[in-house]
Amino acid sequence: MNRSLWQHQAGVPGVIRESPIPSQISDENIVVKVHAWAMNPADAVVQDIPLPFIKYPLILGQDIAGTIESVGSIAGTKFQPGDRIVGLALGAVVAKPEQGAFQDYVILDYNLACKIPDTLSFTDASVFPLCIATAAQGLFSKEYLSLSFPSTTTGPNSMGKSILIWGGSSGVGSNAIQLCKAAGFEVITTCSSRNAKYVKDLGADIVFDYTDKNVIDQVVAELDKSECIGIFQAAGEPGPSCQVAYKSKQTLRVAATNPVTEDVVPEGVEAKMIFASGGAVIYYETNLATFAGYLPEALAKGTYKVAPVPEVVPTKGVEGIQEALDILKKGVSAKKLVTLAK
To answer: What pLDDT is stored for residue 280 in this prediction?
Structure first.
């Protein structure tokens, strides 16, 4: 049987239910036996807050790593049963509530998965999917910053331009730093002082403490030393990023992971929230920067670092997912909570 964590309404814990293992799938789908689930802040939000675009009941969750059980005819051109993969589940986004990640067997769009090398554990691999997909959408989509794609052969800072990543130690920020370095940009980022070494190890060139009262002016002065391609607000409220854009001598667009309200956007600043409207297809535009190109190549070469670092919760199986979500709601920093299958 397949065991799933269903969310019947917002504001209550999930409920475990049993159902048959999926056997009927479309041509572009794969069925994955999960070995590790990773938690995202969005999972906790959907569990607790009734959002207008989310319909209950549904199975929560987006990040998984595991082995393929079966493949559709088109998916079979890329994958075979037994392949070790990491993938992104988008059940709630694509209006298929039964296709969320928090279950033993998950149906995935094969475009949103890639093979992982034998040297990479399922635990480590599970931290990537939503973080790298969100970062890639904001950085490379024409709707947002429209940067050139990353490559395993791109030289460091070869573009001769910089980018600001606000919140570099966050899950999305950790991946954005690596993607931007692989795209040839100098990375300027912010984080707390305790995470400065962490973001430097990921490739950040210049790091500012976001708690410093003068941080906005400090960042502006650094950005204006050379050409800056834009601002990616990976964590926190978008107000500080918008202030940087406003004070800079350059015209800087802001791509934000959190809602952008009119009261925080100064006149003349263009700021837009990254939002997964339109279902899985929105990720296809930037897929060469993630599952269909750069990510599997970089993982195979060992050049892409596991970030954030996973922290495994004690309880295994679907039962451990709620435990991980409860811990996440208390706050974590520069790490990602992971539940392992039994």
So the answer is: 67
